[in-house]
Amino acid sequence: xxxxxxxVSLAIAAGATARRLTVHNACPFTIWPAVYTGSxxxxxxxxxxxxxxxxxxxxxxxxxxxxxxxxxxCDFSKPETQSCAIGxxxxxxxxxxxxxxxxTLAEFSLRQADGKDFYDVSLVDGYGLPVRxxxxxxxxxxxxxxxxLGPICPAALKGPFDSKGFPLGCKSACLANLDGNPxxxxxxxxxxxNTPQTCPSSGVQYYSFFKKNCPNSYAYAYDESSGTxxxxxxxxxxxxxxxxxxx
Length: 247
Ligand SMILES: *[C@@H]1O[C@H](CO)[C@@H](O)[C@H](O)[C@H]1NC(C)=O
Prior knowledge:
5-stranded mixed sheet; 7-stranded antiparallel sheet; single chain; Thaumatin; 11% helix; binds 2-acetamido-2-deoxy-beta-D-glucopyranose; mainly beta; 247 residues
């Protein structure tokens, strides 16, 4: 192979193997975004993001079970699991494990069935920060939870709180263990309730609080039936994605 041909081939290979995520912190305070890859190759990392800053992260073309979340009020001199008031992880600044809920997740599985990208903003593990996923392809839908759910969170779910008593997070009914039986719970879709048929949204306490405030979010374990939880972006778009905290 001629050297010039080799360079062209390498450039094509590189183009086919990476997608670009741009993570914006539009919150008027520092946050610590984290990225975790649940399946296959991809980044496990985290960084300090001052207010109004952005960072570009490249992920594999078929990035699978990827998640991004924003951490709040971090102090990495504390034990890892207590290092942030929201979203703390094993690994410290650079997470090697998923964040501790409640945490709002931007979730991605790229280039799946029919080459489609699937993405969502998940409140299944509760809420920790407002976030928006904006595909670069204008044909593809924005997914977001743009409302600060902390202050308006129902009392039974409210928290954790900052040192001044301000509610930073809002737990899901599952996480708050409202029915006291997480192994067999209609709030957690576990045990006898572990299918879409046996775990309807009507059986999940406070589902409508989350879904009304964040209608384009994934508000419980089987929210796909709402038609406004899981979003797809076709192969032909080869989309990149912006993730904006406090959009
Ligand atoms: C992603 O694509 C690579 C290269 O084709 C492949 O080896 C890998 O198994 C894929 N990962 C997943 C999670 O499907």
